[in-house]
Design goal:
Blueprint: E1 2-6, H1 14-31, E2 38-39, E3 42-43, E4 53-58, E5 65-73, H2 79-82, E6 99-107, H3 122-138, E7 142-148, H4 149-157, E8 163-171, E9 174-182, H5 185-195, H6 204-211
Parallel strand pairs: 6-7
Antiparallel strand pairs: 1-4, 2-3, 4-5, 5-6, 7-9, 8-9
Helix pairs in contact: 3-5
């Protein structure tokens, strides 16, 4: 189940948020060897101070945090514009109230095993479906993301292939891309079929808390 947490609520959900940052450190520093800032075992960056919306996969039975990602409007500070503009053609920007950025997609190692008969873990599919569900609720047309070549296979297997924009660049040891992802009921159906998801993945309580009129 995906719990939705605004950055401004981090103190109210401190256990979940700390576990999320711990998993991010394990994924981005320890396994991918990215140059990220880790303090006391927690990975954070300046965009965590911009009140992002976090999507966190939490096991409904055990309460264990299994993975997460964050969403930020492209009308404010974001990674593509402020850290990786090299991935876009000169002068191009992605900036729209209807497009948000996905970043820091991270899955705990214990949650990475593919589901039976699938190419991806359930948690990966759950997070992909969560992006589209939140996008539909928020009136988005697309999301944009920066990702490495490893993620392209994952995204395609999950029924959510990107539209590559700009040109790939080698950043560090990774070939890195920027891509747009459509937000639509059709894409949600594709993800659900690819990942074996049969219902909404969003926690009703957090959805009501954040999106109630």
């Amino acid at each position: 189940m995906i719990t939705l947490i605004n950055g401004s609520e981090r103190n109210e959900f401190s256990f979940i948020v700390n576990e999320m940052h711990k998993i991010r450190a394990q994924v981005f520093r320890d396994r991918l060897m990215w140059d990220v800032s880790v303090e006391n075992g927690l990975e954070r960056d300046e965009f965590d101070d911009e009140n992002p919306l976090y999507l966190v996969s939490v096991d409904e039975n055990s309460g264990i945090v299994q993975g997460s990602l964050r969403l930020l409007p492209t009308t404010g500070p974001n990674m593509l514009r402020d850290v990786f503009p090299i991935l876009l053609e000169d002068g191009n920007v992605v900036e729209s109230a209807n497009i948000w950025e996905v970043s820091r997609f991270a899955i705990a190692q214990h949650a990475e095993l593919p589901s039976a008969g699938r190419k991806l873990s359930y948690v990966t599919g759950e997070l992909l479906a969560g992006i589209v569900e939140v996008g539909l609720t928020s009136g988005l047309s697309e999301v944009v993301a920066v990702f490495d070549s490893r993620m392209i296979r994952i995204l395609r297997s999950g029924g959510y292939p990107p539209e590559i924009i700009g040109g790939p660049k080698k950043i560090g040891v990774c070939m890195t891309y920027a891509g747009l992802f459509e937000i639509s009921e059709e894409k949600l159906k594709d993800i659900r079929e690819a990942c074996g998801i049969k219902h909404s993945v969003l926690d009703p309580q957090s959805t009501k808390r954040l999106f109630a009129a």
